[in-house]
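FAQ

Q: What does a record look like?
A: Structure on top, sequence underneath. For example:
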């Protein structure tokens, strides 16, 4: 397997349009032709990603994700002062007219759970640790927006005045813990947030 730090602004996998072919998996496959995608990060999100080396490792790692044996922790800077810790369990669904945006839908949305804990707070912003228990698209971004604390620099979900507070989305995949695809031993990877 490969564990890499994805920079903000780079796609994890190729997009539909020709200008979106430059992505992390394509770059990795130029050096490691057997590299396979196991999970994704939003283009605007930076941080740790794991890629399988070959189909057997891909099956093992995909199974670990499906069985929730993988834990991830993100760091985000959010708008507003916030204290303590909590959970957000709003169900999410694709906002079809506005794809790729997602939205909260209490009737037909899919179960989504995010745990959050404030690390620092002050000056109308807070640094939070986020743990996605489920892995829905844009989950952390939508959940934080839905509780009134959008992530700074978020072009999709933050109001314009909050988006303008940063030139990039302040969301980083800081920690990744998962079982080794061959021997099952737990591995822990760490990448400090660049903000």
């Amino acid at each position: 397997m490969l564990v890499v730090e994805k920079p903000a602004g780079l796609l994890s996998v190729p997009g539909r349009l020709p200008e979106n072919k430059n992505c992390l998996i394509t770059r990795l496959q130029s050096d490691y032709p057997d590299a396979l995608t196991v999970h994704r990060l939003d283009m605007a999100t930076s941080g740790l990603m794991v890629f399988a080396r070959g189909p057997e490792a891909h099956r093992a790692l995909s199974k670990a994700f499906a069985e929730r044996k993988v834990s991830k922790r993100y760091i985000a800077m959010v708008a507003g002062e916030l204290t303590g810790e909590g959970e957000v369990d709003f169900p999410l669904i694709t906002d079809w007219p506005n794809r790729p945006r997602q939205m909260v839908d209490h009737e037909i949305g899919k179960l989504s759970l995010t745990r959050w804990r404030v690390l620092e707070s002050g000056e109308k912003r807070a640094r939070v640790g986020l743990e996605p228990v489920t892995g829905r698209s844009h989950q952390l971004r939508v959940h934080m927006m839905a509780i009134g604390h959008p992530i700074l620099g978020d072009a999709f979900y933050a109001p314009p005045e909050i988006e303008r507070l940063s030139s990039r989305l302040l969301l980083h995949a800081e920690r990744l813990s998962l079982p080794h695809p061959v021997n099952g031993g737990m591995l822990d990877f760490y990448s400090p947030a660049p903000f």
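Q: Is there anything notable about this one?
A: The chain has a mean pLDDT of 97.
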